[in-house]
Amino acid sequence: MTSRLEALCMEKGLKMTGQRRVISQVLSEADDHPDVEEVHRRAVQIDPRISIATVYRTMRLLEDAQVIERVDLGDGRARYEEATADHHHHLIDTRTGRIIEFASPELEAMKERIAHELGYKIVGHRLEIYGVPLDDAADGIRDEEERP
Amino acid sequence: MTSRLEALCMEKGLKMTGQRRVISQVLSEADDHPDVEEVHRRAVQIDPRISIATVYRTMRLLEDAQVIERVDLGDGRARYEEATADHHHHLIDTRTGRIIEFASPELEAMKERIAHELGYKIVGHRLEIYGVPLDDAADGIRDEEERP
DNA sequence: TCTGGGATTGCGAACGGTTTTCAGTATGAT
DNA sequence: ATCATACTGAAAACCGTTCGCAATCCCAGA
Question: Is A17 exposed, middle or buried (0-12, 13-18, 19+ CB in 10 A)?
Fold first, then answer.
């Protein structure tokens, strides 16, 4: 069966090898923001003869082809998500690591305005919010402070 | 002569060694966002017997003491600036690497509101805008696309 | 002012994520 | 089916950063 990403890759004229097919499948099925090691872990479950090097190479390939997007969440490793048309950002739960996506047109507009006032045209941007659940915070549950 | 950061360090009760004094001076005089290597480069010019390891250690020390702040601009290395009371963000000129600081109370408020709507209390956040000068963009000068 | 001992330093080795090299393998245009 | 080409696996190289260890420094107390 052809995964969504695989179709996208063929559309872009990429050579479809077995490992690319598997990685595409893994990424199509993912609804989180896996890092390379995690993608590899999942890929190996489908076909054990996929090396981590190939995963790295394929992620870069897919990124360059704009099929996926790299997300830098400041934890020292690259995470990925499927490329989407609309801009969105991430709220990271520092307690659990859960990542919540959100979009805000007003925020986009404001950002655009700020850049313009500074004499710049935006070519990229990123916003991350680190937070803790309101109710937990109220409970006064201790937050083992990571460096955000 | 005692640099501004050196005074701050003594206030915090840190043991003032020769190399810490030099690094404090370098940071006090910096008005940009140097990475560790750059700080080392400048420190060595004042006293050649400072190792890069010590710079790494001192930067972390000063960061923990909230004397300086780490800035992750997504270029794979840590950059630093003096700690300030007010939150601000960075606009990075992708053409030149120049970093422009800006603050926006409205933006802060909006961010706060978004987090609250998602049920979170903010413990940290970061916003970076990558852009090119408006006039350059208008001229149609080619932008050698880095991965932002 | 001199001293003792814990903190700090320099060096090089180790580390974790990522990229590259290279020889062997698979792909898909013919 | 064939063949040039692109791709792959394994291991080494890389790069920013941290760590282990012996030597050194700082400074409170004498």
Answer: exposed
Shortest Cα–Cα distance, A49 to chain B (Å): 30
**What pLDDT sits at residue A142?**
47
Residue nearest to nucleotide D5 (CA to C1'): A15
- CA B63, CA B29: separation in Å to the nearest integer? 17
Q: Do A127 and B127 touch (CB under 8 A)?
A: yes
Tokens of A84: 């989407």
| pTM, rounded to two decimals | 0.85
**Chain B contact present for A122, CB below 8 A:** yes
Give the pLDDT confidence of B46-105 residue by residue, as tens digits.
999 999 999 999 999 999 999 999 998 888 999 999 998 888 999 999 888 889 999 999
Is B14 (CB) below 7 Å from strand C?
A: yes
Instruction: Please give the tally of structural domains in chain A.
Output: 2
pLDDT tens sequence across A88-104: 999 999 888 889 999 99
Cα B138 to its chain centre, rounded Å, is: 30
**CATH code: domain of residue A95:** 3.30.1490.190
User: By C-alpha distance, which of A125, A128, A102 is closest to A113?
Assistant: A125
Low-confidence ranges of chain A (pLDDT < 50): 141-148
Task: Name residues 87-116 of chain A within 8 A of B (Cβ).
Answer: 91, 93-94, 100, 102, 104, 106-107, 110-111, 114-116
* Domain identity same for B78 and B90: no
The protein residue nearest nucleotide D26, judged by CA to C1', is B17
Same domain membership, residue B91 and residue B36: no
Structural domain containing residue B118: 86-148
